[in-house]
Amino acid sequence: MDIFLQQLINGLTLGSIYALVALGYTMVYGILGLINFAHGEVVMIGALSSLTFVRLLENSGLPGTLVLLIGLLLAALVCMTLGFAIERVAYRPLRSAPRLAPLITAIGVSIVLQQLAMLIWGRGYHSVPALLPAGRHEFLGASFTNVQVVIVVVAALTMVGLTLLVNRTRLGRAMRATAENPAIAGLMGVDADRIISLTFVIGSALAALAGVLVSANYGIAHYHMGFILGLKAFTAAVLGGIGNLAGAMVGGVLLGVIEALGAGYIGDLTGGVLGSHYQDVFAFFVLIVVLVFRPSGLMGEKVAERA
Amino acid sequence: MAASLLDVLNLEVHYGGIAAVKGVSLAIEPGEMVCLIGANGAGKTTTLKALARMLPAQGEIHYRGERIDALPSHALIGRGLALVPEGRGVFSRLTIAENLAMGAYHRRDGEIAADLDRIHGLLPRLRERTSQLAGTLSGGEQQMLAIGRALMGRPKLLLLDEPSMGLAPLMVQKVFEVIRAVAAQGVTILLVEQNARLALEVCQRGYVMESGRITLADSSKALAADARVRAAYLGA
Fold first, then answer.
1. Per the CB < 8 Å rule, is A184 touching B89?
2. With CB atoms 3.0 to 4.6 Å apart as the test, which of A178, A201, B43, B210 could cross-link to B21 if both were Cys?
């Protein structure tokens, strides 16, 4: 039972991060019908650039939490600029092109960003300093750290904030209207280009946050960390129903939990043949099952309507 | 000529290599209610879409003394030009209240709530259902919502594309009552309609469009009496 609870806690932590990243995929898809495969790399840039800012401030005498916060804000600015630029350079010129074209530029942007990060930060693994006050808590035989608490709480608050933004504000209403029909939204005075840019900027800010949280969780960051994370978050978005915000959140958390439980029990289930390093298998197994039995995802709408 | 609310000169629209609108010119004075009638595929909807800058077009569009033919579509409602599109185009995944709020998206003034009240007075069905998703409404109710949404933008010129399309006769009557009420409030209306009889009944003036060109322009009374119009569109 304690393994179950322990893995549930670990899965919840990981799942909150997947959810934050998945939101970026799903928001862009909701508005453009496009999978922004470069999104995972934005997470990576967020993690590494915040690390650089943290290193610069490390010996400034400021409290660790404040350093982390400043690092996060600056990284968010970097990522928001990057997200804005990606849309302008890689997607906007292809707005009316066949759907395959922006998919290819997405992969291109992804490779460019990864290589750029390698040139800037090198090929090595960077250790991320622990800036939050260390602490471990026991709970019914399982344990969790302060970092895990912060991750889950911050991710949850962010998701509540985003939900309110999308459902309760003038901007959110315009985003939903544009997602449904950009031409008609235009008649209402909505500048679709501006809404699309903002969507990328907001998604990239979430990516920066996810990058900082995931590197704090594992204590390391590296130039190719965005690839597998992006792929899993994309899986989470599809699992929840791509284009659906609540779906991305549920899908992210669910995927994290499935993965953690899978990793926890795979040894027992296979009599020790497969170990917990097979945990990645679960995410993609889930993706295949979802695509076969419920292609529109758990909370998705009928796919056929979107041409 | 500069005094007209809307002046269109030689409007042309091409889909690929095919000309859908071939040099349409028309003028609308403030306070008028004008219709554009014609058969299916004559280019009526394309003309309206071009006027709303939803399609690339050649020719000049003068609106209140300003050339608007190079402006983006989203710049028009702020100038008082609104289009209720063919097929209504309500945001089906937004509630009725949100659809109406979208109509006032460009406005920053303090009279939005008062306008909402006024529109609820005009369209009481919408008030009863403010938190319902627009996609759950009937076709007629969606048409009402689309008109109400456009009115929330305080248009001076309202372009209406086939408001009777797909509606039951009783609903058509109701929709046209609303259109008349809107016109009575001083909104200038350009109505595109396949139901020529109805259009000529409510409008003072009309244009007849055939395969991309305006072939007749006259008062509704004269058009309704014209032998060609009677034969082609009024079934008499």
1. yes
2. B43
